Fold:
Amino acid sequence: MIRALRNSIICLIAAGCLITASNAAPAKNAWVMRFDGDWEVASALPEKAMLISLQGLANRDEAQLYIIHPADFQWEITEPLYDFYKRKHGIAFREIETAKAALSRFKSAAKGYVVWDTAIGASLNVAFTIAGLEDAIVVSEALIPLVRKQGLKQIDDLRGRYTGQTDAQIYGNAIDRYWDRCNRDKIMLMGGHRGRVMMPAMADWGIRERMFFHDLSADPEEADELVLNRRLIGDLNPGSIVFGWHPYGKDTEEQSTMLLSTYGLKMEGLHNLPNLSYNCQFEFTEGFKFTNNHHVDLDERLVAEQKVYMSFVQSDSIGIGVWTKPGRGKLPFAWQVTMNWTDFSPAALEYFHESATPNDYFIGGLSGPGYMYPNNIPKDRFPILMDEAKKLMGVLDEHVMEIMDNSAADGNVGNAELFKETVDAYYEAFPDVLGFLNGYGPARTRDLRDSRPMISYDYYIDPKRPREEVTADLNELIALNSKLPYFLLVHVRESNDVNSLVTVVENLEGPVEVVAIDEFLKLAASKKTYKTRFRQADDPVHFKGY
Amino acid sequence: MKAFLFKFLMLGLLVPVTAAVANPDFNGRWRLDVERSSALDGWTAMDLVLTVDGSKVSIEHDMRWRTSRVVETNVVDTKERVEISNFFRIDQRHMAVYAPKKSVSPVRARWLDKGKTLKVETTVPVEVSQGNAKIRIYCEYRLGVGGEMLTLLELHSTRNNPLVYRFRKLSSDDTSRP
Structure:
């Protein structure tokens, strides 16, 4: 009895310690490293992979190591976010200049190292998996002396293990060895760049969370890989998240996202999204509450005039590569927020909101609480996922849902339409939104029910398209849709320069008015000059699916 | 005087006949010179395969974006107006302007400039967000000096900027696709 009581007390104390630890505020002292833009396997990738794996381990229990990438890195906000942490969270960063210094500082987080084979890309993913499970850092052969000098011992060596094997064979072996011990709520699709350049900047997160890493194809023509891919995602718990990105050259984004969607899984990219192991440990600053720059109330009624109403939307996770570029704020812009960042990267969301201009407006997406293709989400999972999305939109004060389903498209061109049943499901799931946007490239799914329009993009601005051609395209759309009001919804692809769009707008013909997306939807609800349309059975498709 | 009048009339008859004959250099596969052309949108590559057969001219469009290929052919007639089902236009793929599932377009074609220019005129129905609309299209396929370059000028009734596509002729033994 006494022993039982003593054990209970010990358990309670231990539990209390755990609770205290998990609720503890992030450390006020942290370290920062600066990366360059060299991700070549033959030069700087091995050291970066080692440091990222070290970051994942160092940040496992507390936020200690943050990495700043160059301004031209795809995720360009690492420097502004670093400033945000200093300013809003009072973090005092000390800079670490070299890999050796980083190892020296954080080696205690690692129990040893695992060697990957630089001739076999997939072996890096296997090494990352081992790193998470065994608290190891990943090193190439050339880096072994460096880690040995730090007193680290070899845990595993993949050199030669997979020579001559296909990726399917390599991952098949890795599944047999490690899958049982890996996280079943999260998995790392560490694809993206392959071959000469690899960019696994998100590996810290996968290691911290003990995820299985792979870059298996979702292409039905690579059946041996697809069957393993299916096995892994089929083993995940309902509602799980697939982090990373599809492997370039093996399959397509459309194939990969469609596959995950058929399992009701959420996609959270990209493979090079850095610092999640650090970012996830912060909450919103005290007293912070999202307040969007609404231009209309939810129950407000607007009446459209005889005009061309135009609205710009940036998706791609708040417009990868655009937020910090000059010109933002000159035009009303809607920004699609990766809502899951509420959990993984709240400081980043707070930074975006803090730095928003009155012309920046946030909308939910993409299709749900993560990147998904809704035509393919299992019917029993759809309401659950959309409930999750609704809650996140509530936290983020968002009134508009953006939808995208490219499962029948080829890249940004082709069939991005929603079946009527899918549209029905959205209208049922989101009774309180202002409306829905659809597409990525142009699309023609449109509807209006009560006061909630569903409008597809009539135009997609390719960042490389000459601005005079963009102007001509938009003027041609205005000429073709001659009934006023015309509601011209434009998707602005990541990395487009806002300043150049100002010039485009100045050269449009007709009574054009650029309005914020909430205003646009209210106006579109007042006068329906667009035709209702859903995906039709004989619409052209470029990928027939699984 | 009679002889002069006869010669004049004969010449008058001959001129249209001469004009109606196509330059044989039109025949062959032409590859788009992307750098010197109006920007294709969505599409990444294009060949034209032109075949002149009497008064008929087959204009095959061999188009590609990413892994998707589209091959569509319009056969025009330089002697008479023809009705072409699902007339293919080189569309800007990032505009929500769609070809209807079934359509018929009246097409007129004619040789100009002593057979060095093929003029094609048509009106195509399209589907846009407000329903159905039409675009009147005027094209000229101009053969360059030496017969190695082809320029396609395209005007739309709905667009104030001309679209200009420049092509280089592929050698007859070049079987590559765009």
Observations:
- The interface with chain A takes residues 38-39, 41-42, 65-68, 92-98, 101, 126-131, 133, 135, 156, 158-161 of chain B (CB under 8 Å).
- The longest strand of chain B covers residues 131-143.
